[in-house]
Amino acid sequence: MLLIDLALIIVCARLAGAAARRIGQPPVLGEVLSGVLLGPAVLGPSLAGALFPADVRLALGPLADLGLVLFMFGVGYELDHRLMRQPAALSVAAGSTLLPFLLGAGLAGWLAARHQHSRPLAFALFIGIAMSVTAFPVLARIVVDRGMAGTRVGGLALSSAAVGDVAAWSLLAVVISLVGGKPAWLTLLAAPAVVAMILLVRPLLAAVLQRCTGPAAFTVVAAGLLLSAATTELLGLHFIFGAFLFGAITPRQNIRLRTEVVDRLTSVGGQLLLPVFFVVAGLKLDVAGLGVAGLGELAAILAVAIGGKLAGGYLAAAAHGLPRREAGALAVLMNTRGLTEIVVLSIGLRAGILDHRLYSLMVIMALVTTVMTGPLLTAIRADRPASPPARPRAEMAPPKIHGTGARLPAAGGLCQLRTAPSEIDRNSSTASAATASGGGSGRPSVGGVRATRRDTDRGGRTGRSIRPR
Fold this sequence. Notes:
single chain; two-stranded antiparallel sheet; 2 domains
């Protein structure tokens, strides 16, 4: 039964992703919805129970965890540290994170009386984090698909989301340590462990991988990833933090390492294991008996989540002199939550911070805020920027570009751009501007994020390379 269910999960995720793409939504949104459609929220408890019996659910749990490990490894690996050094990005990230966080923490005081929780402080902090999250992978895909790559809004959105992601994961680690049940002295070891990973493990890993290729390099990276995840779990944090950190310290300059190791790991995680996580998350969804009270809570959650993000992002962007339409587009992009929010909510449910009913309401909020991004951008005509790209074409000689696809690496390879050769030629000026803003790395970049040799959709579907000659 397990093998049959795995086949069903993979096929449904693929079909749902293709359907989402056809209606202008990110494929990952369709894959998340496939997990909901296969769960009791749609099929009902009896049919979902027959389709996924108890023994199958027990087997799917570890596979979903492994999918999360590989996904978070990709998030850390694709994080461009240069994105977090832009003053405007820091300001926009602060505005679009702090306001929804504070509003969410305030809303937690009202929700606390209606839901089970054991630690009021952890509950308030967690709700604030859930309201302030931006899904960097989904946002990057939207930026590319709508032709906003290379514009001021697109680059600023990617940079701000990267900063916000790091801040959210760091604060979430603190919250999980509060409810982890581990001795305080053990949790305090997390800080020196992070320092050791950066100062000791990172150079050692780079030196080892310079001498290893093929299966040897795959073994080093895979074993190191699992050990890093296990270490943070033992320290009272969630294993995803260790996976994220190991991805962040893995060398990026080695192209063979990316193609032979990283892309293979994220491909398995993206096409096979992450859809399992979506189903496991969907099986925990409980929308039965919400009633008027539940709908009132959902309305309040949506109001805080959407209002906080839009207001915070808009005000911060306007303060940096962006026109109203561009500031509005940036605020809408920062309101995208998607997969990252589902991961955060799953952690909260597992840690006992959320009950199943509040978890279900928050998942609905994550889906709504992601679905609304595309239509809102169309409504404000954000794909027709009022300002030119960050650098005019005259400042650099455009490189010659060949191939049929380009990968915008972002958080586990969730972004993909497939363009015809004629489109590549028409967009050569954009690629040129991206190369200039990519820190002189010689690779095209979009908003400071480098394009790489391969193009993948969440580590899976590959295209050809896009490289300057």
